[in-house]
Specification:
alpha/beta; two-stranded antiparallel sheet
Length: about 290
């Protein structure tokens, strides 16, 4: 029986209101804030230098969240170890992210560590090594699946244009440098390959480009002491990513704060600088204070 008690208020409406109150009371404070205020999301897509599941290793995409104000922006790290920008697409990982992107969001993309090797066997992660529109038809040897392989730059442009169509701001990063040093004691750069193609893809599509490779390489060089025997500088093998917390790596890795702060060994633009004043934030800064003024 749905008897009217007070005016238009019925037993059913009271029951429904009570259920809603119980449900809402169980929502965590952060979720309540998100419901009350529509905030943008910073989506991160990439390989294990961004997110890794290996013990005692950490991609930079996890600790970077602590540098953002959670009341202003939400950070979602969707990086996946072992993926190239080709397999991040073919395994539908990008589709899952794209389905959640909304206008005003940011999409940071960084690939390059897994984009070599065979195209048609094993992990079959390689792309055509340039920023062209060339394609190559391959058949995966182990499965017989046919696939059209595109260039490294093409896959980035795909992510960029998809994000732009959803009203998001794409930000392209050149790859984190490897632990690879030249005879002159400097880090080997990606300026002639993945870094170059990433820059070209960003420029071609009007996306923000940040030369992460150069920024971090310079920080490696400024932080590491010369080796006694060879005169070269080298980080411990366990220091796999740009941000790591094991004690053995503490002095050999680049912190998120380093990557976002201007200084003698760091060049603008950085990811934090690129985000300020873009995508509807206006003068508001999603970074935690005091970094908003940096």
């Amino acid at each position: 029986m749905n008897r009217t008690l007070f005016g238009n208020v019925t037993r059913r409406s009271l029951l429904q209101s009570g259920i809603a109150a119980v449900v809402l009371s169980g929502i965590l404070p952060d979720a309540q804030a998100a419901v009350a205020k529509e905030i943008p999301t910073l989506w991160l897509i990439g390989d294990s230098t961004m997110k890794v599941g290996t013990k005692d290793q950490q991609g930079w995409g996890d600790p970077v969240a602590q540098y953002f104000d959670p009341t202003e922006i939400r950070v979602m790290n969707r990086g996946r170890g072992g993926r190239s920008n080709r397999t991040f697409l073919t395994e539908k990982l990008w589709d899952a992210v794209l389905s959640e992107i909304k206008p005003g969001d940011f999409v940071v993309m960084q690939f390059g560590h897994n984009d070599g090797g065979p195209m048609d066997s094993g992990r079959a992660r390689a792309s055509i090594h340039d920023n062209s529109d060339d394609t190559k038809e391959v058949t995966i040897q182990e499965t017989g699946v046919k696939e059209t392989v595109h260039s490294y730059g093409w896959y980035l442009r795909r992510y960029i244009t998809d994000a732009q169509k959803k009203g998001a701001t794409p930000i392209v990063l050149s790859p984190v440098p490897r632990n690879s040093w030249g005879a002159d004691g400097t880090v080997n750069r990606a300026a002639g390959d993945y870094g170059k193609w990433a820059m070209e893809a960003a420029k071609q599509t009007g996306a923000v480009f940040i030369n992460f490779n150069e920024i971090i390489a310079k920080r490696y060089e400024s932080n590491l002491p010369p080796a006694r025997a060879t005169g070269h500088r080298s980080a411990p093998r366990s220091c796999r990513t740009s941000v790591a917390h094991p004690a053995s790596c503490r002095n050999f890795t680049v912190s998120v704060e380093d990557a976002g702060r201007p200084g003698p060994a760091v060049q603008r633009p950085t990811m934090t600088g690129a985000m300020r004043g873009r995508g509807g934030f206006g003068m508001a800064c999603p970074m935690k204070k005091p970094r908003c003024g940096g």
